[in-house]
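Dear colleague,

Following up on yesterday's call, I've attached the two folding results inline so they're easy to grep. Please treat them as preliminary; we haven't cross-checked anything against experimental data yet. The first protein's sequence and structure tokens come first.
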Amino acid sequence: MKNIWRQYGRILAVAGLVIVINSIFYGYSLLPVLAKKDIFWAITATSAAELILFYPRRGLKKWLRRVQAAVYLAAAFFKLAEMIFFKQYGSYDLFSRVRQAKYLADVVGYILGQITAPMICFLALSLFFLVILLWPEKSQAGSKSGSHPAVSEQKQETENGESKRLLPTGSRKVRIAAALILLAAWALFCRQTEILRSIEVYHALGGSAYRAAVGKSGAAGSMTENEIQQLLFRNYRHQNEYTGIGAGKNLLIIQVESLQDSFIGQSYDGKEITPYLNGLIKKSFYFQDYFELLGFGNSSDAEYVSLQSTFSDTELGAYEDYAGTETMGLPKLARSQGYHTFSMHGNTGTFYSRQEAHARVGFEQVYMGESYEQDEIIGMGLSDESFFRQSLPRIEAADRAGKFMGFMITLTCHGPFDMPEKDQVFAVEPELQNTTFARYLNAVFYTDRVLAELMAALEERGILQNTVVAIYGDHHAFANVDPESSKYLAKFLGKPFDFDEMMRIPLIVYVPGYEKQVTLENIGSQIDFMPTLANIMGWNDIAAPMFGVDLLDPELSRDNIVFPQTYMLRGSYITDEELFERSRLKGGAAGRLIDRHSRVQLPEENARPNYEEANRRIETAQQMYLHNQVMDSIQEFHFLLDKKGEKHYNQKN
């Protein structure tokens, strides 16, 4: 009897350990997005399955025990990877990134910076369970070495000579059957709650199956040809008071790493966080309700969406998914107007295949990290200060040769935001010491400073006086699914850190000769960047398909809607007045609909029209780019113009 109670105690202790491990895993990752009852169900099912599959049983051969331990160890590290991935993307769909593993070596530092105390605790407890799994118990008195009286199916002699099981646990077949049932139930739960798929049917089917599915429905998707033409070419030849105010000037676009609008105009402990940008806004166009619009390509998708005015695909990132597509984006618009085009980045050109991709989309010269002296490394690579300094002679040469369109991508303000001691200018309160929030303050202040130095150098050389400069953030710095980020950002801002705060990035456009502060409160996103800049530069008479609108045109942008598809599931949307987050538990248009100003919950059925429009537009864009039909849409538009007897611009190559 004593042995029985001892073994029951051991079972309870091991079960408790497994439950704690899974509670950390699910509680840390899914608490922001799932109901507590669903998390409880997930913890229970996973713990039961793991106990059945991995409970340390005696009588197993050594090699089988090692296999069991290896499988558990692999599962533990996979869970850890999922926790890190969820913190960054709000999704468990790590499989969607398998083909991006080639970039892993370049972001090891960033990944390590994402590891938090709960993750370390999870890993430590998992390794402790692994020790229990491998460590054999001492042989029981009177039993054979290697036997386990409570858990195995062996029999022992009682005092009166009768044999009995000390703790009947069922046959091996029963255990296997129970495990399969639990795993099947768990798979069904994952499918229903979309834990393993963040992009609706795309990841449920897999990329190739999805492409086959959309291919059957035709490249037009659920929109008619007439609707597509009206949507894509609504910016063509439109006019407003800002049309052409930058005509004939150079265009310099600077995409700033992790520049989040939450910090623009803010101070910490009496010190401005972005003093230069705050001053620049006073003589520029400032779009303060402007959003990122990414796929899974992050910074590279920010580039593609901004320069092509389309929705990204959601497998590898737009540069790779749309590699076979001929485009007509901003670089090619500039070239059609006689501009020389170039792009610059301090990181390697193999990352996101930028060296090849930039040439494909219309940049005549591509200067990547291989063409820079890597003389000062901060974080992921070449410091922004060195990058700007080494880029200046090239910009000067381009300016002497004629009109140019340049595209610069910064790098230093990249997580985990570790800065040299000389650039740590903010003294934070004790509870913020060594937090991502504290590190970001110093990183974004540094970026603001070197931007000021670049602009001053351009002005000193007489270039800025004839150059339109557009500065925007590529994506957020903090994710609201990260408990630490949500806590500190909510405290810093004095309001909840929801998606419409998390995904908001600044867009600042400086136009020499028009140095007035124009603050735009109407909603927009990176998909609207190209039409807005094309209007400022006076390139509206060129037929180019754009899913976005000119944000400076009150008529075109009046009912503008932002349609995210990663951190918020496809079908979600943000308008001037509403935020709709599609549910991860239910299908269709179910989800959370709130008033953005009062934060009051609204009837979710009100979201259906915009939910359906989100799916129509994203599907149309992805099909058009996956099937290389961008130039076909332009030819069709010209055909319709000819049919109406209208003249149109003959594009130059």
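Below is the second protein, in the same order (sequence, then structure):
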Amino acid sequence: MLGVHHDGMIFNAIHPTSNIQHPTSNIQHSTFNIQHSIFDIRYSIFTPMLVYLTRHGQTISNADDRVAGSLDVDLSDAGRTQAERLASAVSHFTFDAVFTSQLDRTIQTVRPLLRRSGTPHVSLSELNEINLGCLEGRFRDERDPEAAAMWAQRQAALATFRPPGGESFSDLQKRVRRALATIRYIAAQGVILIVGHRNVNRALLSELLAMPLVDALEFRPRANRLVKLTDNFTQSTSPLVEVFKITDHGKLQLDNKSGRLLHECRSLG
């Protein structure tokens, strides 16, 4: 069933115009009809979905330079501060839904926002970070020479490299497409926030902007960035794309440098 968190609880999302549950059943139990503005009639069929995309806050693995991948790791103290700043930065927005992976670091990142807003929260396993197999939990520097060498191989061939027991970017992109289909089913022409992972967000940008993955991999925004874009799936014109920095004071500041980088990556395709 499709897991929807609301007021601290987890429910199934059922399409409001039918009694048939969404077919991508992979999450939790109980039944709930979403009566918020996700399906509100104020949205025209011609209105594209508006997406805000960001990455989870710093984790204890990030701070220690360990490979996390699909492992479940907590936010560091710095990451929890970043989560509070995100909540402040978007406090004036009205989101129809917030989407995360099922990994704790994304859920912990949206928790301050959900406490303030009560926005429906959907967690999708298809948005989990790429599985890096035998590299997960290991240092990527001289403390683990074997892992460091394999990490260097991966960095040299990001689009195709598959570590033993893990996923390639091609594998990741396939499940991100499934996640995006679910998001489009739920959110229609709504305004949504997706809190994902570094590699998942690259795959999402590739899909949302109709950009070749190899080009999306070139976009590496710094931490505390929020990307705003319209969903290319619903319109024929070039999507709106803006990148904002989330400041230390919990404000949004237009980041022209990252925005230019993303536009340059799009132009490669």
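For the second protein, one point worth flagging: DSSP finds eight helices and ten strands in the chain.

Best wishes,
A.L.
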